[in-house]
């Protein structure tokens, strides 16, 4: 039971005084944000409406202690749908600011820096959509060096820095390079020759799918059903996590086509991931053409919240397209 | 409607448009265009043979475009008057209708538009509402998924006189759906579209759900709502009955609808607030209860009749509590959803009230108005001297002033409500308001500032709000310093900048101008006229060397006695903190410039006496 004397109005005022927090009390708890938010797929307890409601009541400890306040990735899928036009991610930021001031910190997980490898080149600093990485100068193995440092309160473990790092110094607890490659090649999928290499009668497609771009459980179930000798689905934390080296690896090892699926532009869970993923794929396509291969073999697709049922069709359409690629020329180049 | 049509004293001009209205209460002249029906009213007996013969089919807007109608048709079977009309834009002139009409010979292709002039005593505006177009909300997929409809469309399908003779079918396959989700507040209570509550959607959704449940017992009906609003008599009981019938109610606004492209079934996602969990419903049909919105031509008619509009866009009533069916223009009354979304009982009640109010005008030989109207001094009006001005006409919220170059401005007294906005706005003092003349106000001002003016706060207050607020402060015994002196005028729009400057010339310490809050102005836009004027005052004061902190604008309602007391206390504190000597010096330094500006007052016989150098004995 919550008694009225537990409600801390000072907390409400504190949140509302933060930039972005001023709309806290306009919420009337319709639940549109909660039904829109995709974080709940992986964190069932996450409910933005409830956080706003509790904060609006002044349940200070209950709000600040909960791990959910750190999970909003500011994708702003809820913002355009909110009938009260509350910028919910900004309210979350305001709550976090109060939490940080009160000495709380995000429970993680975060991207990790291997300081012995990090060259301090700052590519990750520029790639991070949240400005969570900065360079610090500190003693590493007895010598003074400049290395990347991840602010755990800002990092949302999207993995964009991991894919961006040229030295391989960044890593995520899940979705490490090793783990992704082992998932790509599980059951010897990568060791079988593809359609273009004169092996499989049907084109073989490897699809990297951003875990936030597929919205319903039913769709994931269809994707599982699709997994076969000719289709391999590997999920990523974000399409921006896709590593060009992995795409090229797949193409040289029996995949006829690689499809990367990200969130729809504007709905990207990590703000800039779709932009980065699509740009990378465009560059890989150019490299393929320069090598005399068909740039169509790598493709990027966007899946919006309303694009349910589209992905299986897309995969079969791509497989179909690949049948038209001139086989002999591709084999010659590959060889 | 049928009774009205039969009544000897009621004439219905259907298929006609009001183009222009001039005149005033009791003496309106309406210019009406009667569009040609191409069917003679006195011959057509409504048999419908012509429509059966007509080969052209068009979308039927009465059936919300679900069913067809003919190029010669009536809106619906119960239409009054039951006279057919030809839609000339789609008629191919095959003359099959003429053949079908036969001996009645009611069809006349040579019919022309008619322009009528009607002399009427009062006008009732009952133009109704429109439905919000839900395709503006992309996440609900209206217009994209065939089985997402509006509740109005669903109602036509469920109606036994509707296009499917009462059999509810879904557009994708013509089958009766086994499950329906009904979504409330589509486009209303939504700051992206319309902030207001449409009011009657809860009830008509529940009604349709109950009707369907009674016809199709096994139909699974879920209503997604934010709040169920059933406040009128017997409404709550109706809602209870719907729950007892097994209609499912889920409190939660759906975030999106997606469609299975093969089955055309729909997935509705929402957070069930009671569960605190997201639910996903697979249903065969979705109905959206879209908001009632003002008709597109609301603004056109508003300018024709000098009506104003509320924030939601509907016509604004004279006063929300005391005169809910009167419009701001005397003799024009409002009824039904044109004034705001409302259900049938409320429309009937308001319609009856409007009829009674209108009859009051018709039964009177003369009409009494407030004796505070404005009048033009023709010798001073520069329009009479052939110069372009018209400032008074733009300031008048009632369209009571007409200005033609070469003639003095004309004020229709019956339209004037006595706000005094034109009086204050006229740069040549050519308009005066009875009982609130410049001389009367300046005389008050002079008397109030006779002793120790630098210690006084001169407060101009509007009659309806701020004066009531000051009164409220007194009757509630709120404590505030005794150095304020009030002058009451009808509206903040009457508070001429000249009065404010005159107050400083006479040595006032502080000046407060206060009126109604913007949305509460009793003279439609008087407060806006005033606010615009007051915005310029601080700069004027700065130029004159007067500290602008000695001037304050506050909007105080009649209930805000506490605010009035607080404002006066704050101003009094501020005044106490200012050095009296420098304050006097400021006023004295500004005095010649103000005097020069008010030179024209000396030309007025009433004002000249009052305009003796400041701080002398003033004859009262």
What does this structure look like?
The complex is a heterodimer of chains A (335) and B (620). Chain A is of the alpha/beta class and 335 residues long. Chain A folds into three domains: 4-101, Fumarate Reductase Iron-sulfur Protein, Chain B, domain 2 (Orthogonal Bundle); 108-172, Alpha-Beta Plaits, CATH 3.30.70.20; 174-330, Rossmann fold, CATH 3.40.50. Helices cover 36% and strands 13% of the residues of chain A. Chain A has 13 helices and eight strands. Chain A has helices at residues 9-17, 32-36, 48-57, 60-65, 88-101, 123-127, 160-164, 177-184, 217-226, 244-252, 273-290, 311-323, 327-334, and strands at 112-113, 133-140, 143-150, 170-171, 205-210, 231-236, 257-263, 298-303. In chain A, α3 (48-57) packs across α5 (88-101). The longest helix of chain A is centred in the last third of the chain and has 18 residues, at 273-290. Chain A starts with 8 loop residues before the first helix and ends with a helix. The model of chain A has no long low-confidence stretch (mean pLDDT 89). Chain B is of the alpha/beta class. Chain B is 28% helix and 20% strand. Chain B contains 17 helices and 27 strands. In chain B, the strands form ten sheets. Chain B has a five-stranded parallel beta sheet. In chain B, strands 25-24-26-27 form a four-stranded parallel beta sheet, with helices on both faces. Chain B has a three-stranded antiparallel beta sheet with strand order 1-2-7. In chain B, α4 (151-158) runs parallel beside α5, α12 (466-475) packs across α15 (561-577) and α13 packs across α16 (580-597). The interface between A and B is medium-sized, with 23 and 28 residues.
């Amino acid at each position: 039971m919550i008694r009225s004397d537990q409600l801390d109005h000072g907390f409400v005022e504190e949140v509302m005084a933060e930039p972005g927090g001023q709309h806290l009390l306009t919420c009337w708890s319709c639940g549109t944000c909660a039904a829109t938010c995709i974080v709940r797929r992986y964190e069932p307890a996450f409910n933005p409406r409830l956080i706003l409601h509790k904060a609006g009541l002044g349940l200070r400890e209950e709000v600040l202690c909960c791990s959910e306040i750190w999970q909003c990735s500011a994708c702003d899928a809820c913002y355009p749908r909110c009938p009260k036009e509350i910028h919910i991610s900004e309210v979350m930021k305001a709550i976090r600011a109060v939490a940080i001031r009160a000495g709380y910190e995000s429970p993680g997980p975060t991207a990790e820096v291997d300081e012995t490898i990090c060259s301090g080149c700052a590519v990750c600093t520029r790639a991070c959509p949240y400005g969570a990485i900065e360079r610090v100068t500190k003693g590493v193995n007895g010598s003074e060096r400049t290395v990347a440092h991840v602010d755990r309160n800002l990092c949302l473990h999207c993995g964009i820095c991991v894919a961006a790092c040229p030295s391989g110094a960044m890593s995520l607890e899940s979705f490490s390079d090793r783990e992704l490659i082992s998932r790509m090649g599980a059951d010897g999928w990568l060791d079988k020759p593809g359609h273009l290499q004169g092996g499989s009668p049907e084109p073989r497609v490897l699809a990297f799918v951003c875990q936030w771009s597929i919205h319903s459980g039913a769709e994931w179930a269809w994707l599982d059903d699709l997994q076969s000798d000719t289709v391999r689905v590997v999920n990523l934390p974000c399409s921006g996590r896709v590593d060009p080296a992995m795409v090229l690896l797949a193409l040289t090892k029996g995949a006829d086509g690689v499809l990367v699926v990200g969130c729809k532009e504007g709905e990207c869970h990590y703000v800039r991931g779709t932009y980065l993923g699509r740009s990378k794929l465009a560059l890989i396509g150019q490299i393929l053409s320069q090598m005399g291969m068909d740039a169509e073999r790598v493709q990027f697709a966007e899946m919006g919240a309303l694009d349910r049922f589209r992905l299986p069709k897309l995969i079969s359409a791509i497989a179909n397209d690949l049948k038209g690629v001139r086989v002999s020329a591709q084999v010659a180049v590959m060889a | 409607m049928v009774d009205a049509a039969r009544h000897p004293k009621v004439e219905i001009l259907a298929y006609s448009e009001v183009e222009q209205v001039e005149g005033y209460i009791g003496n309106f002249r309406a210019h009406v265009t009667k569009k040609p029906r191409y069917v003679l009213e006195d011959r057509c007996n409504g048999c419908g043979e012509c429509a059966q013969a007509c080969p052209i089919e068009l979308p039927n807007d009465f059936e919300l475009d679900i069913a067809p109608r003919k190029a010669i048709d009536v809106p619906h079977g119960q239409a009054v008057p039951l006279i057919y009309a030809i839609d000339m834009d789609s008629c191919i002139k095959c003359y099959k209708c003429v053949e079908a009409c036969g001996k009645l010979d009611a069809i006349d292709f040579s019919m022309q538009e008619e322009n009528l002039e009607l002399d009427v005593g009062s006008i009732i505006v009952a133009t109704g509402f429109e439905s919000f177009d839900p395709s503006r909300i992309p996440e609900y997929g209206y217009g994209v998924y065939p089985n997402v409809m509006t509740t109005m469309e669903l109602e036509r399908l469920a109606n036994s006189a509707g296009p499917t003779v009462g059999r509810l079918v879904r557009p994708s396959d013509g089958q009766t759906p086994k499950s329906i989700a009904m979504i409330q507040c589509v486009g209303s209570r939504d700051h992206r579209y319309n902030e207001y509550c449409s009011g009657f959607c809860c009830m008509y959704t529940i009604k349709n759900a109950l009707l369907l449940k009674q016809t199709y017992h096994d139909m699974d009906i879920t209503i997604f709502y934010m709040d169920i609003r059933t406040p009128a008599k017997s409404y709550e009981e109706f809602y209870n009955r719907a729950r007892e019938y097994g209609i499912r109610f889920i409190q939660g606004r759906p975030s999106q609808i997606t469609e299975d492209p093969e089955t055309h079934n729909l997935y509705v996602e929402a957070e069930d607030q009671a569960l605190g969990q997201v639910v996903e419903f697979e249903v065969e049909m979705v109905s959206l209860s879209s908001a009632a919105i003002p008709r597109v031509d609301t603004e056109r008619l508003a300018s024709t009749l000098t009506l104003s509009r509320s924030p939601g866009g509907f016509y604004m009533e004279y006063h929300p509590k005391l005169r809910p069916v009167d419009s701001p223009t005397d003799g024009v009354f409002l009824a039904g959803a044109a004034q705001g979304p409302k259900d049938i009982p409320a429309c009937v009640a308001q319609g009856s009230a409007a009829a009674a109010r209108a009859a009051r005008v018709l039964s009177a030989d003369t009409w009494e108005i407030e004796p505070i109207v404005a009048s033009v001094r023709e010798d001073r009006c520069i329009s009479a001297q052939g110069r372009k001005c018209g400032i008074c006409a733009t300031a008048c919220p009632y369209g009571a002033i007409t200005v033609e170059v070469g003639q003095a401005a004309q004020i229709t007294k019956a339209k004037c409500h006595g706000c005094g906005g034109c009086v204050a706005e006229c740069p040549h003092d050519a308009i005066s308001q009875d009982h609130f003349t410049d001389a009367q106000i300046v005389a008050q001002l002079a008397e109030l500032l006779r002793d120790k003016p630098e210690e006084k706060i001169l407060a101009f207050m509007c009659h309806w709000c701020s004066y009531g607020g000051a009164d409220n402060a007194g009757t509630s015994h709120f404590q505030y310093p005794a150095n304020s002196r009030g002058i009451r005028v009808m509206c903040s729009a009457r508070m001429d900048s000249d009065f404010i400057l005159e107050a400083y010339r006479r040595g006032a310490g502080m000046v407060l101008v206060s009126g109604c809050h913007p949305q509460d102005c009793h003279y439609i836009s008087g407060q806006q006229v005033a606010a615009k004027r007051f915005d310029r005052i601080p700069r004027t004061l700065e130029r004159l060397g007067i500290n602008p902190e000695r001037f304050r604008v506050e909007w105080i309602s009649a209930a805000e006695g506490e605010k009035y007391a607080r404002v006066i206390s704050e101003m009094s504190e501020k005044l106490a903190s200012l050095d009296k000597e420098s304050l006097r010096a400021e006023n004295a330094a500004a005095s010649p410039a103000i005097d020069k500006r008010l030179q024209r007052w000396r030309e007025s016989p009433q004002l000249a006496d009052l305009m003796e150098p400041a701080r002398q004995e003033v004859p009262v």
